[in-house]
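Run: sequence + adenosine-5'-triphosphate -> complex structure.
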Amino acid sequence: MNTNAIPAQTPAVSASNVAMQFSDLMAVKDANFELENGRFLTILGPSGSGKTTLLRMIAGFLKPTQGQIFINGKEVNAVAPNKRSVGMVFQKLALFPHMTAAQNVAFPLKMRRFDAKKIPARVLEFLNLVRLDGLENRRMNELSGGQQQRVAIARALVFEPDLLLLDEPLAALDRKLREEMQLEFRRIQKELGVTTINVTHDQREALVVSDQIIVMDNGEIQQDASPTQMYRTPHNPFVANFIGVTNLFDGKLMSASAEGAEVHVGDLTLSGILRSSSDASVLGSQARCAVRAEQIRIAAAPDALGTLDLTFQGVVKDVIFEGERLLYELSVPELGDEPVRIFHHDQNDFATHDVGETVHIGWMNRDLHIFVAS
Ligand SMILES: Nc1ncnc2c1ncn2[C@@H]1O[C@H](COP(=O)(O)OP(=O)(O)OP(=O)(O)O)[C@@H](O)[C@H]1O
Ligand SMILES: [Mg+2]
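>> structure
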C-alpha cells in the first residue's frame, strides 16, 4: 500500500456532488462524503436505495453522470477499474471452481505480473490471514460457503490494494456464519489497516463492523456518522426507523429551543430533543416524534417503572420471544392506533406480562427525538 506518500489529511476516498442517472431514474443524487485512510465505512440502506451504484462508481465500473470521485486525493472519474488499486468481494464470489484455493488467490498476482518466485509465499501468507492454512489445495466445491468467502477475501487483498470494496458478500450465508464473518472482516481489516467500503442492508452488521456509516434512501445520503452518533442522534425519521426498532408519533410542533421541544400528538404534549436543523422548526409545523423500543420501560405497576418523565397505561396485544429479549406490542390509545413496540431485557421478571394484561409504560424526554419536515 502506498499510504506513506499520502498526507494524513487527504481522505482515502471522497465523493463530491456525485450523481448517477439511468435514463429517467436518478439512482444516486448529489452524494458527498469523505473516508479517512484505514477506516471501515458501511453504506447502509434498503433495496434499491443506490448502494451498489455508488460502490460501482467508486470501483470504476460506472462513470458518474455528475460530480467527482477521488481516491487518495486524485480524481479517478476517467481511471479504469484495474488501474484503481481496488480489491473487491461481491455477493456472487466469482471464484474459479476448477482451481484450488491457492490458485484462486494467486490469480490477481499473476494478472499484475507479480514476481513469480514470490507468489507461493505471498499466497500462503494471505491464506493464513483468512485462517485457511492447510486447505490451500482444495478446489472450491470442496470448501464450505464460509471457507469460499475467505478465499474471496484473500484474493481481493493479496495484491495489497489501497481500497477494499465489499458488496453484500455475506448476504447468502446463514445468520450465525454471517455474524462470525462480520467479526472476521473487522479483524482482517484492522490487521491490514486497509481502507474498506462495505455495502449492506443489515443495520446490525453496520453497527458492529464500521467506523463510519452512510445511510442511503432513494438515492440520497440521509446521514453520515459514526455508529454511536447514528444510533443516538438520528437526523431524520428514516434513519431513526432504519437503525433499531422505533416508535413514531405524528403531531404539531408547539415550542422549540436548544433545551428541548414540545409536540402536540392528539390531546397529548410530548417533550423531547429537536433533531432537525433549527431553521426548519417553524412553530405549528408537522412534527414526527421517535422513541426506540428499548428506551421505553414496562412494568405491571406504575411505581415499579422508576423515575420517568412520562407514563401511560396500555394493554398487551402480542409478546414475541426473541431469545435474549422480549418484544411487546401494546395498544396505548393515547398514542394513537399503531401498536407501541417495547423491548424487555430484564431476565428476573421475564415473561411477566401476558396478552390482554394492562401494563404501565414510560420514557425519559431525552430519549424522544423530534423531527420537523423541512
Ligand atoms: N444499469 C442500470 N440501469 C438502469 N437502472 C439501474 C441500473 N443499475 C441499477 N439501477 C436502478 O438504480 C436503483 C439503485 O440500484 P442499486 O443496485 O444501486 O440499489 P441497491 O441499494 O444496491 O439495492 P440492493 O440492496 O437490492 O442491492 C434501482 O432502482 C435499480 O433498479
Ligand atoms: Mg446492491
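>> summary
The chain has two domains: 3-232, 245-372. Residues 245-372 form a domain with the OB fold (Dihydrolipoamide Acetyltransferase, E2P) fold (CATH 2.40.50.100).
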